[in-house]
Amino acid sequence: MQAIFTCDDAGASTAPRALEAFDAVVDWLGSVGLEGTFFWVPKPGEHPEVHYETWAAHLDAALAAGHEFQLHGLTHGTCLEFGLTQESTRPSNPAPFEDYEARPDYFRREHSVENLTAKLREARDIYECAFHAPPLVFRAPCFGMCANAYAALHAVGIYHSSSRGLDPTATAYTITKDPSKRRWAPDYPCHPWVEPPGVTEYVCFEDLTLSGVPSEEYDDRLDLYKSELEHFLAEATQKTVLVFGTHFSAMYATWENTCRLLEELFDWLSGCGVTEWLTFADHVSP
Ligand SMILES: [Zn+2]
After folding, report:
1. 174: domain range?
2. Which of 40, 102, 119, 142 could pair with 69 in a Cys bridge, judged by C-beta atoms 3.0 to 4.6 Å apart?
3. What is the domain-level CATH number for residue 245?
4. Distance of alpha carbon 138 from the chain centroid
């Protein structure tokens, strides 16, 4: 089975620690022989040119090492930038729902096809300035997505999306520690599907390292990963590709544990037949 290592929020922050974390993940990917797909935020904050200048050398080093960048929202200023987050994320992240429910008229306008298309055109233009090619894949911030956002993606010529999380219930367990959430409860099928009017959606396997991997939780977390992946692999079809989700800042928070866990997991996955790691671009346009 093919697998894609994805890592979110490149460009989202110019804080020195964020850049340090990004560089560490790039180095680590090289050490384990993986070429990854980073989802890049084109316009965080008020001064995108400062953001790009700060990141440029880091982006170039990652590109030279074989990694790639795809599009992660426009500003990533809110989880609701492109639609509402999945209901199953409510226990671990209730704020977007409270905001959405308090201002329904605002979000109806905010999530119109016209408005989302304008956001994506701007995002695509900034992306093209940075990478000299159009983005092929979009990921909505926090997996906040809607039907109009797929229509907008299609309108700007982006036909691949990884904007849905597979099992946010299991992620909620790692954040809330509520044992009732430590279970396989997928929101979507494990194989890609087509959203109208013609955007292929590749569901993202949950980032179970999002809240870090403390030493006392290491064994439980590895066990949960394997359990979730066993379900995923059991439901896989010939079209299935494992889109593995991570965040470099979260990885860096418990760096040694997280790297050790992922390396152990990737060894285990290779024994399960997941052996062909590639970038998103290589998967969608081989
Ligand atoms: Zn993000």
Report:
1. 2-284
2. 40
3. 3.20.20.370
4. 9
> Which one, of 176, 170, 257, lies nearest residue 207 by Cα?
170
Instruction: Write the single-letter amino acid at 3.
Output: A
Q: What percent of the chain has pLDDT over 70?
A: 99
Would you mind telling me the total number of residues written for the chain in this entry?
286
Pick the closest to residue 145 from 170, 131, 174, 165 (CA basis): 165
Nearest Cα residue to 209 out of 280, 259, 146: 259
Distance CA 228, CA 217 (A): 16
pTM: 0.97
The pLDDT tens digits for 132-142 are 999 999 999 99
Q: At what angle are helices 16-32 and 255-271 packed, to 10 degrees?
A: 30
Please tell me the distance from the alpha carbon of residue 200 to that of residue 241, in angstroms, as a whole number: 12
> Which residues have CB less than 5 Å away from ligand 1 (the ion)?
8-9, 141
Quick count: other Cβ atoms within 10 Å of Cβ 90? 15
CB-CB neighbours of 99 under 10 Å? 15
Q: Which residues contact residue 149 at a Cβ distance below 8 angstroms, ignoring those fewer than 6 apart? A: 82, 83, 111, 116, 140, 163
Ligand 1 centre to CA of 152 (Å) is 19
CB 81 within 8 A of CB 141: yes
The structural domain count of the chain equals: 1
